[in-house]
User: Which sequence fits this backbone?
């Protein structure tokens, strides 16, 4: 790869870590995924079109790799519901300030959503991609982005509701 | 999208995200005006996006783990002056697994940048005295009321070298037409800056900024942050 491409790849790492953090729901899986993405990106750098957004290309690789990974390990769904149950217990009810929400609770809520909704939420809400950009990264129509996004966001709001109060 | 249905959640989410055209937005706003249930759904759609941004936003501000940077830096570069480095890059590439393992060991105790920063953040917050907590509240009101997004207002503790800073990062209107702002609060002490919290506050009719919610990065809820 050219020195410019390498510079772009390095510069995209913080955003790639943020995207994978939202996608996987925990810091450990996120950085494992970043490593996989970097290795694939370096190997397949010829497929990157110079002048396009480096992070969108990386997000697409990340999404594909994560789907492969979760298909290989079906245990995640069980793990997610366990985390959700634990976080409800650990929430501490009345002792917790009503206006506070923890990243773990958001993780747990996201983990309860179908994988494809999660990816759209991470791209649009966290990475601030437009609907058209998100559709391109995921290889789906804009209408599908909209339905996954609306369903995912309404569900997420319900899931974290116990931890989030409106003052 | 000439015949849009404003009650369709797909249309509503597109409205919330500014993805609709002017005519469609006007149609949605008319429907919002007469339908309280629709307004409630719009608030939920917006809140969930804020929640995600506030929860995961700081990850991009963390230092990238050394082994991940090293992985990219070791990739061979083609063309021009950089070709001379190929050999060295190849060697460090092969050495990488061992380096990565060493780094992983180092990081194991800290559980990554986010947690490390956080635990420092909450222990720092625990050390804030009452005067500083009061100052933090006043600083938040002042910053959210007066500053443009991206600018910071600071308060320096006369007793120590500690400095609190509040930075509004984004402004939006909620479905009750109130102004809301996302903000971040940091503490600098002894040359080291830690993130105390990220939050959203909305302005009431009296010009007071009330906390909508905030994220305290970290595993354990630090009690001293409750107020």
Assistant:
């Amino acid at each position: 790869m050219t020195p410019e491409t390498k510079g772009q790849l390095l510069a995209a790492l913080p955003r790639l870590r943020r995207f994978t953090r939202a996608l996987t729901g925990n810091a450990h899986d996120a950085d494992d995924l970043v490593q996989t993405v970097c290795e694939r990106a370096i190997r397949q750098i010829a497929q990157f079109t110079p002048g396009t957004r480096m992070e969108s290309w990386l997000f697409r690789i990340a999404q594909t790799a994560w789907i492969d990974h979760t298909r290989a390990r079906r245990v995640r769904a069980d793990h997610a519901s366990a985390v959700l149950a634990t976080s409800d217990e650990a929430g501490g009810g009345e002792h917790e300030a009503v206006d506070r929400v923890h990243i773990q609770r958001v993780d747990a809520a996201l983990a309860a959503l179908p994988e494809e909704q999660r990816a759209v939420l991470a791209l649009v809400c966290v990475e601030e991609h437009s609907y058209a950009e998100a559709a391109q990264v995921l290889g789906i129509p804009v209408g599908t982005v909209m339905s996954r996004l609306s369903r995912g966001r309404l569900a997420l709001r319900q899931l974290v509701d116990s931890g989030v109060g409106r003052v | 999208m000439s015949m849009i249905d404003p009650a369709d959640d797909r249309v509503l989410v597109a409205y919330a995200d500014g993805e609709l055209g002017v005519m469609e937005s006007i149609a949605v706003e008319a429907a919002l005006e007469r339908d309280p249930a629709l307004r409630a759904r719009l608030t939920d759609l917006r809140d969930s996006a804020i929640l995600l941004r506030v929860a995961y936003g700081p990850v991009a501000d963390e230092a990238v783990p050394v082994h991940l940077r090293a992985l990219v830096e070791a990739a061979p570069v083609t063309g021009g002056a950089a070709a001379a480095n190929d050999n060295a890059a190849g060697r460090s590439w092969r050495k990488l697994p061992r380096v990565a393992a060493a780094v992983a060991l180092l990081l194991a105790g800290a559980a990554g940048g986010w947690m490390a920063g956080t635990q420092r953040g909450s222990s720092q917050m625990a050390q804030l005295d009452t005067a500083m907590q009061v100052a933090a509240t006043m600083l938040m009101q002042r910053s959210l009321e007066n500053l443009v997004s991206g600018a910071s207002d600071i308060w320096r503790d006369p007793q120590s070298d500690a400095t609190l800073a509040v930075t509004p990062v984004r402004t939006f209107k909620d479905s009750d037409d109130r102004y809301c702002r996302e903000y971040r609060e940091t503490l600098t002490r002894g040359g080291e800056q830690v993130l105390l919290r990220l939050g959203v506050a909305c302005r009431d009719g009296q010009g007071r900024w009330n906390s909508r919610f905030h994220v305290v990065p970290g595993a354990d809820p630090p009690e001293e942050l409750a107020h």
